[in-house]
Each structure stands twice: as C-alpha cells, then as structure tokens.
Input
Amino acid sequence: MTSAAPTQLRKPYVTSYAEENLDLPLAFEWVDGMSRLTYRDALPLEWMFGVLWARCGTAREGRIQWNLVHTLRQRRCMMQGLCRVCGKSAIDPDTGRISWILTSALAGDFRSPWPTAHPPTCKAHVAEALTACPKLRREPPVVCTVSDYTPVAVLVNLYGADDGGRVVEIRHQIPVNLNDRHLLKQALATQLIVRLEDLQPVQG
Ligand SMILES: [Zn+2]
Output
C-alpha cells in the first residue's frame, strides 16, 4: 500500500516510480564451481560489491511510489554523498561534513559508527525531508553531520531454486555483510548500507 502525500511536495530523488519497475529474469548459473544468482541477459555492470543488483528503469516519471526506494538512485546517493531529496551533493562545502537524518532509535550512541540504508539529506532539504518522509514522521528524527562513511552491507532478497528448478525468493529484505561472499551469491541487492563515522548532532 502506498501512502498519500500532499501534491505540493517535491518528489524525492530517491523515491521509486511504478513505471520504473522491471521484470527480473532471474536464474542461477555456475561460476568458478559455485552457483550464483544472475539475469538470463545479465550485463557485467549489474554486479557491484560481489552481488547482483535489482534492475530498474531510470525515467523518474509516472506514478510515484512514496514508500519505495529506487535501488540505483539509493546506491548512487550512498556512493557519491548525494541528497535523498534533490540528488545533489549533501557535503557542506564549508566544513566538508555530510548532512544526514537518522531516526532517534538508530542514533542512540553518537560515539559509535552506525550503519544505515538512508541516504544523506543536504542542509537545504532537511526540513522538507522531515515533512515528506512517512518513516521520519513516525519515528522522531535526529539531524546530524558525519565526517565520512563506508559501505558495509547490502539490503537484499535471497533466492533459491524450488523442486522444479524455478528461482524463488526465500528471504525478503535482510541485511547481508559485504564480506559474506557465499550469501551474496544468492542475493539480489536493493539498497546499499553504509557505516557512518564521527556523528555529530546538529544543534537547534
Ligand atoms: Zn537536497
């Protein structure tokens, strides 16, 4: 179910559109003596961090799915420090620090590095993101900055083969560490998880 959102709100860069959903011709293949998930017509660029990524269109047009994250734009935001709302850099040019919104449940201890699948939010769009994001409305958010971050895991769906040899989903939306090479071969990645370093809450 998708939630309604006021039409005057910007359509966030990271949000998915129904027309961007594509068929996933999943299959298993043998590579170096191990079975791995692939597409029947896979391209090399559809793997990153040793895992196959969910295929999706990139038109950013049509019926927006407010509660769904677009896999490739989420990954791009994470890899390049881009804002989830506008898709431009969330790095403060004065301080070099990156602006990020966390839920308070996640940000309990600012001294510890913390994993998150939520992309950054640039300073200019913090207020808009807090208004527009249903998840952030449900859970009290904390606005902070970070000095750096590192990819550590992926959010995935795990697949196996049934008795008829058909590819079937066996686990939905679980985190898998980037070091878990065995599990990554059965996985379809949907979001990149990064570890935030040196969190500092923004006062006021
Ligand atoms: Zn922005």
About this structure: The CA atoms of residues 157 and 172 lie 5 Å apart.
